[in-house]
Each structure stands twice: as C-alpha cells, then as structure tokens.
Known about the structure:
The complex is a heterodimer. Chain A is α/β, with parallel strands linked by helices.
Amino acid sequence: xxxxxxxxxxxxxxxxxxxxxxxxxxxxxxxxxxxxxxxxxxxxxxxxxxxxxxxxxxxxxxxxxxxxxxxxxxxxxxxxxxxxxxxxxxxxx
Amino acid sequence: xxxxxxxxxxxxxxxxxxxxxxxxxxxxxxxxxxxxxxxxxxxxxxxxxxxxxxxxxxxxxxxxxxxxxxxxxxxxxxxxxxxxxxxxxxxxxxxxxxxxxxxxxxxxxxxxxxxxxxxxxxxxxxxxxxxxxxxxxxxxxxxxxxxxxxxxxxxxxxxxxxxxxxxxxxxxxxxxxxxxxxxxxxxxxxxxxxxxxxxxxxxxxxxxxxxxxxxxxxxxxxxxxxxxxxxxxxxxxxxxxxxxxxxxxxxxxxxxxxxxxxxxxxxxxxxxxxxxxxxxxxxxxxxxxxxxxxxxxxxxxxxxxxxxxxxxxxxxxxxxxxxxxxxxxxxxxxxxxxxxxxxxxxxxxxxxxxxxxxxxxxxxxxxxxxxxxxxxxxxxxxxxxxxxxxxxxxxxxxxxxxxxxxxxxxxxxxxxxxxxxxxxxxxxxxxxxxxxxxxxxxxxxxxxxxxxxxxxxxxxxxxxxxxxxxxxxxxxxxxxxxxxxxxxxxxxxxxxxxxxxxxxxxxxxxxxxxxxxxxxxxxxxxxxxxxxxxxxxxxxxxxxxxxxxxxxxxxxxxxxxxxxxxxxxxxxxxxxxxxxxxxxxxxxxxxxxxxxxxxxxxxxxxxxxxxxxxxxxxxxxxxxxxxxxxxxxxxxxxxxxxxxxxxxxxxxxxxxxxxxxxxxxxxxxxxxxxxxxxxxxxxxxxxxxxxxxxxxxxxxxxxxxxxxxxxxxxxx
Lengths: 93, 716
C-alpha cells in the first residue's frame, strides 16, 4: 500500500493515566516519519480512559497523515475496552 | 392534542377488546382443564392468556392488573412446568380470578383506571386464596408485591446515556470506563459509542485530561434513580444525560397517558420514571436562574427539560397533555362527586330538623341578641347549601331532547331546529327526573301537532324549518320551563267544538280564551285528526298536567293562531322546604305556601250574604277554613282574609290570626292520609305543634266545585 513500512511499536504494562503522557510521546514520535504504526498490545495488562484517549489520538494523527494504524494482539480484557471506542485489533499477520 | 387523546382512547379500546378475549380464553381454558387436567395445550393457552394480559396491562401502566395477573401467571407457570397438578381446588381458586380480571377490564372500559376499594379488597382476597399454590418463597413475595404494588411490574427499559465526563475526572481518579463496567452490573450495556470529537490537536492534548464522551445504550430493570446514582460522584463536573431510548418513546408516551392526572407536569414526568427528582430539581433551578437573570416570566419547565436534553420532546408533550386534561376535567367531572341520594336526603332531613329546632329557640328566647341572630343566619345558610346540594342544572335533561327532535323529525318529515336556552338554571334533582317525562310529551306534541310540514309552512309564508324552543329560567322562587314552537298555534274553535262533542263543556257555554286553551289538559282530549304513534291518542296533556300538579307546579298555555304555542310549566325549586305563611284558626295552625299568597286583608265586619266580599270593587269569593275543617269554637272577633291566587283566579281564605312567614320543612303525610285533597303535608312548628300545609290548588278547585253544586241545587 505504502512505500514505507509499518513501524512496530510494542507497549507493555499498563496503559493508564499513570503512563499516558509517556505513551503519547512514544506513539507520536514513532508515527512521525514512519509508514504507519502497528502497535503490539499483547503485553498491555490494563487500559483506562486516558490510555484509550492516547490510542485514539494516535489513530487520528495517523489518519490525518493518511497512514495505517493497527493495533495488534490485545489481551481479551484490553480488546473489550478498545472495542468500546471502536478500536479493533488488526488480524494477525 | 385531541388526536393524541383519540389515539390513546383507541389504544385503550383495543386493549379492552383484546383483554376481554383473553379473559374468555382464560376462563374457557380453566373450565377445560377441570375436565382434562393434563391437557398440555390447554395449560399453554391459559398461561399465555395470563401472560399477555399482564404484558399489555404493563404497557398501559395498569399496575393493579399487572400485579394481579402476575400472581395468576406464576401459578399457571408452575402448572406448565409440571410442578403443580391441576386440582378442582386450584380451578375453583383461579376461576374467580378470571372473573376479577374481567371486572377490572370492564371497569377500564368504563373509564376507571384503578379498581375501587371493593375490587381491590376482592383482588387481595383472591390472591390470598392462590397463596397455597405459589412456589415456596413466592408466596411471601406475592404479598410483598401487594404492598409495594408491583416491584416486578417495572419492565426492563432501554435507556440512552450520554456521558460527558468532566475534564478532571481522570486526574480525580474517576475513570469513565469503570462506570461503563459498573453499568453492566445493573443491566445490559447493549451498545457503546465513544465520541473522541473533543480530542484537541496532538500538541495541545493533555494526556491526563478527559476528552472522551460516551453514548451508552443500557437495558435495565433498575429505575432511573438507580442508574443516576451510579454517576453520583462525577455529577458535579460532568454532563450526564439519561433518557429513554428512542424506540421506547412510544411506550413512555403511552404510559404517561395512562397515568393518573396531575396538576404538575413535573409530577407526571417523575411518576413515569422518565425524569428523576434530581433532574427535576436541576431543571427548576435553571428555570429560576433564567427568570431571575432575564427578569421575565419563567420558561415552562417542559421547555427547559427538552432544551437541556433531559427529556425528549414527545414525552414532555404527552405529559403536558396529561396536565391539560387535568385542568379540563377539573372543571367538569373531577369537581363532582356522586353521592348516594339517600344520604343526601338524610342530610336535608337533618337540616330540616335543625331549622325547626332553631325556630323553636327563636320563639322561646325571643330576641336572643347578636349570637342568636348569627346562629339564625348560619342555619339559614346551611339550609340553603344543603338544598343546593340537590340542585342540578336542567340543561342535561333539556339536551336529551335533541335526539328526540331529530328522530321525530325524520319520522314526520319535518324540519325543526331545537334551541335550548337557560340550561344553567338549576332545580331539585328529584324534580328534574320527574319533569323529564312530561317535557317529553310536550316536545313530541309540539313536533307532532304544533309545527307544520315544510310545505304547509311555506304556504303560510314561514320558513320551511320550524323552531322548537326549550327555555328555562328562575322566577320568584320557582323555575319556569317553556316549550315553545312557531307552529300553527291552537285552534280555539276546534277545541271548543271537540269539548262540546265530548261533553266536557255544555254547548253554548261562554268560555274565555284561556279557559278554552286549558281544555287541552282535560282527560281524553285530543284534537289531532290523525292519530300518530307519537302523540294524539288523547293521553299526554292531562297526564302532563297531573304530573306537574303533583310536583306542586302549574302549567299554562299561551298561543297565537298561526304563530305558535308556548307551554309554560312553573315548578317549585325544591320539594323539601317551602316558604310558608302561618295562619291560625282557633287552636289549629295552617301553612299557606307563601308563593300563592298575594295579600292579606281584614274581613269586613257585619253579616255577609254569600261567602264573598268586596275587594276594591271586585267580588272575592272566600273559604272559611273554620267551616271547611270543622274547627270547633267561636270565630275570633276580628277575622282576616289571606288572598291566594291559583291559575289567575283569586280566592280568600278566612282565618283567625295571621302568624307570619315561616320556613317550612315539608313532612309528607302518612299513607293513611294520602287521599286528603286539600292538605299537601305537615310540618312541626317551633312550639312543637303540628301545622298542616294547605294545598291551595285543590282547595280552591274543590271549593268552587262545591259552590257550583250549591248554586245548581236551588236552580234544579
């Protein structure tokens, strides 16, 4: 689809208000200059609204750059939360 | 607005019709079960009938019905599950339940949304009888529900929650997601949409600020208050809206329409569960603020609720409708209560006794000072209000004739418009009922004999359409009801000819016009050439007069040839109390109805040739009450004459003493005396003595008859 490759980012631990600022920076930095993001969520144990916001923000930024933004392998709990916000995990490659 | 009402009525009618069928199914099924206790299909039918009844009742907010049918359904459910065997005892307990449901449905059809006390008691009794058949633990539950009237009756409802959390929620440790998770514990969260529209540009986005809003669809049996309470801690900073889901609007609208009426739209909304007290308080606060700020009239609360998204507009409309209906019906129905006539009579009887007792204290104490005067005034007012209780406007009775006129016109091919005036005039309920038939005779008579056919009318230069007027008005302590038509009027010659033919009057007798017209009230008198099935069989006018006289009324006819006839009925306003004029003859007292008394004069001294005297140059015949009633003793030295008027004819009543005006409570005479002609009743005087009330009409008529006989004898 794109000439540049998807950049893989792996998040772990909790994706909550405690870590939201950090994750925001990471995701936005990773997005910049990439061919899109693939965020591996398999190691994420917990998501709250703050975390969800950050993911939504990153997705919007990607959309604005017309870049793909994929979420991968969330744990079931996390997936359920993501689903609330209309964020679905990408199929396994 | 009215369309909505009609919709509601229609919906309710449909429900009633269906419910009748279901009750029938229930009953048939139960009877069938008794014969074939194990017929699975029948058990199913019966259970479904009960279930559907419960469901539809819930739709209309008929809590008592829901509650009652729920228990029945539970019992039938056990039968269906095989936990309970059909026994004659069970069927005997269930059959009256079906009857009870039927009775409540019929009550509904008659417009009663709630069962009356008797029905409620009956319902409770029937439920108690079902108790042994309820599964363990349910029995207590059923009783419980009877207390709180349908905890189970609240069906699951779908809510739409708009949750816009405060920006600081996250920092305050309030995670919106945890609220969503909690919601799942009180209902089913069927859908969540996240609105990230408020997310600012990446650079400005503070990761610790909450930007997200959620739209949640929740299906829950929990009342709105409970859902609201979930957000108690974030309420301050957040914008939480809980409204019924769109597809439930109709259900709310229906429920509201079926709710008891209320003065305040807020009560209706809170009662329906669509608004919580909290929300209403908030809306009221906004209303106040706005009014204070703008210095104008407060905006209607409904408008505020809608504008702030607390309640959808259709629901507010329905509630307003409910309120408006309240105001409307207030002015008519709800201000009236039905009272057992016997109780009312008892009250009036007591008031009568009070009046008597009071006049007795008045007599004994003489001028008892201010307090006495006050008591007299109050008793008088109590008497008036008590009598007013029996007063009803005559309009309802008069309007009933619209149908009569219409039907008769169709039958006779006449065109008549009915004009009713003075329907507000009030009269004693008993009188209204008893005057209705005579009036019917008069109306039919006018239509049949009075008003001509269109062709005939046009030949006489009248409009093709005739007019029948019913008019009522109060006149000097009596009510006058007029039935007038603009028809052909009475034919004097024909009436006279008929009267001679029938030997009612002697041939060649000279009669005044009035006397001739009054002949139509003679028994067996009819001038109609063709006898129709409406009137003209010679029964009617005499019966009318008899009925009117029996009510202490009078009837007269006023007619102009070719221009129309007016029949005028004059009735007392009430039958219970009259204003009387007390006179004494020897040791006896009599009461002359005051409305008949025109004046009192002293009996001229000296011997009088006949029983008549000179009253300002006119001959006044009089009756000596002393002779009439064979009262012993010498007449007083100075006697008085009470002049009474009956059908335009004046007669004197010679008495010993004039004792003054008196409010008289009429006590009917016993059966033994029912044939007495000149006495209409009796009353107890303040002194404890009994006074007879003179019936002036027959008294005068009787006397002139006797005079006739006396005069006829010497001639013969």
